[in-house]
Structures
1.
Amino acid sequence: MTIAITGATGFVGQVLLDRALAEGHELRALTRRHQPLRLGLDWVRGDLDDKPALKRLVRGAEAVIHVAGVVNSPDPAEFERGNVVGTLNVVEAALAAGVPRFICVSSLSAREPDLSTYGASKARAERLVMASPLDWTVVRPPWIYGPGDRDTLDMFKAARWGLMPMPPREGRSSLLHVDDLARLLLALVPGGEGITHQVFEPDDGHPDGWSHYEVGRAIGWAMGRRPWVIHLSRKSLERAARGDMALRRHKAKLTLDRVGYMTHPDWVVSHGARPPADLWEPRIATREGLKATAQWYKDNGWL
């Protein structure tokens, strides 16, 4: 099967690319810069604003997996441009090319669009996909982690020193290993009854998600430590976000927009929204996945 992929050079996209090639798919992937040649993969130079590149990307494809998007930015306009307009451009290209299948990677944050600009942009992107005549499926991942993830890296660094700052105590979140997400995206490609025109919220299968305290201790365990978990209030997180933006500017990992959804108490996947068990189930237990991620960070010099 020929699959067109956006966001293939990002954290999730790279894992998806490797798994899709291992399964024998022919791939076409969008990239802004030169990439090494790989058997079965055709790189297309361009981005989500480049309509001619998108046309080349989807031509002859049997499915599009749209992963690309803006996850973090101090500029709210970037979310609109990358997540909303970018999705619209990919949808229009897929429609014009007659692509029979479209899988959109959204975010659990789209469930609460009033909490953040990011979540609002993902919700608008979902509506564009759902309003189209495409044979679509939307996937809303929760907190994704795994080897190569830069967003969670700071938490592993903190755990190394025995101190784990976390959002308020009352919050809970679902987690999912990146490889399990990649397996799901490929399992959805054929579509079919109960799959098409559905919104799925996958997770690791941990009942009722994880408390922030449990996540902090699990990351500490993965680092061989028993960290002191400190729950920060919204005001404390906002101060920390301003400090991070002043220090790292556009590379800041903690922004005021992120604080908006980090302090929401319920990021557990919705009951009944998990993918069908006969199609997909998570394979990687989160504690072991976090431990393997910590080892990957160490082996690759990130810690």
2.
Amino acid sequence: MIDNIFDVSLKTIGLLHINGESLGRINSSAYTSYIKVLYLPKGCRVKVDFEFYETKDAALFFVAPNQRLSIERVGELPGFFIFYNQDFYCIQLHDDEVACDGLLFNNIHNMPMTVVPPSEAGFIDYLFSQLQDEFRLKESSHEEMLRTYLKQLLIKSTRLWKQQHLDGVLTNKDNDPDMFRRFTQLVDAHYKQKHTVADYADLLLVAPKTLTNKFKRMNLPQPGEIIKNRIMLEAKRLLVHTAMSAKEIAYELGYEDPAYFSRLFQIKSGESPSAFRAKYLAKGEAVVTPSNTVLS
């Protein structure tokens, strides 16, 4: 039974402690459809999609509904797990408020973790303490207070992410740090239909060469590689979590030539789609669902 939950008119947000007792439920499919924020102490091991992360210090994780989360090890101290749906707070619709889409979620480095420096830990602890209190009190404006604390957490975390991953970009006044965020937002929205740098340059109203040069000047991965990496990540998700064939996945991701898609997968991952799936089946990590199930 979860006491820390607000669930009214399709709008849902909840808060759980992360410990040995709650681990099984958090790692289950119960929260797959939710946007998730984790606040973990040092000593934890987390898997997001196909990457593992160790927390050497306190850290925040931001996991979108299309990502797969598994907490492999908890620390000596408990952590916190926030889950909420888009009806409660949609970061795309409120981009001007928190500007975290393309940074905390769906970012250019596919990095879901933000380290919490000791100097900021007090404020983050305060926000989680206030959230817990608000869930218990349930006084007037309960919903808006919960949303306010969530927004503060997202805003602070976005600033920390920028400092940790874009420090060199931010200090150069000639750079355009918001360009890569807009680019990654567009890639995440259109990667199944648009596969070239020119496609996204058109959406951003710049020349392809201009876009490429901007990323080069900011010492960021090249746009073409970011597009391919996003497509390959989705291909891996579909191989592991559905029963779709490589040919079906190729069509799902916008490739009319399945053979070309398989060659691209081989180049990017070092193995064929069938070998990649077989590897995860052998590890017992693949969760195959009916072939009409498509992850977005």
3.
Amino acid sequence: MKFLPHYKRYFFTLLLFLGLTQPLLADTQQTGLLWQISKPGLKSSFLFGTIHSDDPRVIKLPQAIHQHFVAADSVTLEITLDFSNIMKSLFSIYLPPTKTLDRLIDKTEYTHLVKLLNEYGVPEEATKRLKPLAIMMILSMPKSSSGEFLDLQLYQQAQAAKQAVYGLETVEEQLAIFDVLSIDEQIMLLKDSLKYLDDMPTILEKLHELYLQRDLTALLKFNEKYMNQGEYQELVKKLMQKLIDDRNVLMTKRMQPRLSEGNAFIAVGALHLPGDKGILKLLEAQGYRTSPVY
């Protein structure tokens, strides 16, 4: 398949989509990208909120974060970013073999989408096979210049340093998001998202700015405004339950062995951290103390 050399670009947009869709759930101010997680009798670990991006402003870790990363006994990401998992993710965003996009939407809409995705380096033979939600995901993300996004760099550096590397989820669990909505529901959301396509560069730039300011609460509020602008709020709510709340609970549970071992460095999308149903609150409910470090 001619489009396989672009796999990192597609995977980059998938991870950014998974990490930038958190509803607003709390008014408590939460500031900081790196948090110390501690409990009596355990050696402290560190929880880092990433932005799944290859923007030069975010891919180089500040020294305050880097020192804890390199000193950690283990590194845990949402999933392990080996080639096998990346390829599983890529193929999971395709329609069933019996369906193609040109048969699901009218010709004018299809031609428009082919042109739009071509600007992202996606050839028509791939566009025709992509699920509508995957297309919405790609069009809602910045055009990746390298595909070397922050999470991938963390994985590669940990591998090179021979640190133990773990994942909080399987690829199959992450990609179950594409089964939450029917194809017809995905088409509805895709068409709705196209109304706001011209606004995406401004929205994404603001998200990066707030991330660099380390203001999780402001990031959360701004993102809620973005997520609530569409027409199909019930579908968005259904999507968010699976995409965020359920995953927060699962990831908090899965990080317990690493926290028990101590001196772990755990990195997940920044918008999984704040809010009443965010990972920080879930950890506090289990008796952990969470303290911002940077």
4.
Amino acid sequence: MRIDIISVLPEMFTGFLNESIIGRAQREGYVEIHIHNLRDYTKDKHKRVDDYPFGGGSGMIMQIQPIADCISHLQSTLLSSKGESYDAVIYTSPDGNQFNQGMANRMSQLRNIIILCGHYKGIDHRIREKLITEEVSIGDYVLSGGELAAAVMTDAIVRVIPGVLGDSQAALDDCFMDNLLAPPIYTRPAHYDGFGDVPEILLCGDPKKIREWEIQKALERTLALRPDLLEEQ
């Protein structure tokens, strides 16, 4: 899989992309992640990529030219080098569709995607109409830029690419995979003064009984904490 991220603050991704699961996934060839500085594509001699909004109002708007040129460059480069096209051009926006596990699973099956990080007050709406195929939000709040949203999405997408996690069952057991929260989890010691004991069922050695208990507890936690997830099924 290939992920191209367009940002006005590319430095924000340096440490994040080189560590933990994402760093290992790149080193082992499961994913290519490329960060592109939008300022490299502007024709403004001062490297500006924003301007004032028509009609007045506060804030600055990301301009068409650098975004259009950057996406066009990426598309032509991918086509000439691999004979492929991008499956999705995603824009991070607080008014986009809410990102969830199902979306991460679906995107992990794509070959090539572009993520455009929103910034300032947003992007010229003509870009959204002509070039963006999907708009995504990670929550009903506003961030200073889309870089954090792009990082969250990238992490969620990469970790469910087959083979990325050493334990193939690990991703399947995560929260939200079946629209359920995860059941309670425990580790050694089985008893710790003042904190109680690990449930006996987890020590019984019977995988079927343990799995039944986990499903029951997952349902109970979901009903208590996120009943909306069950309503979506």
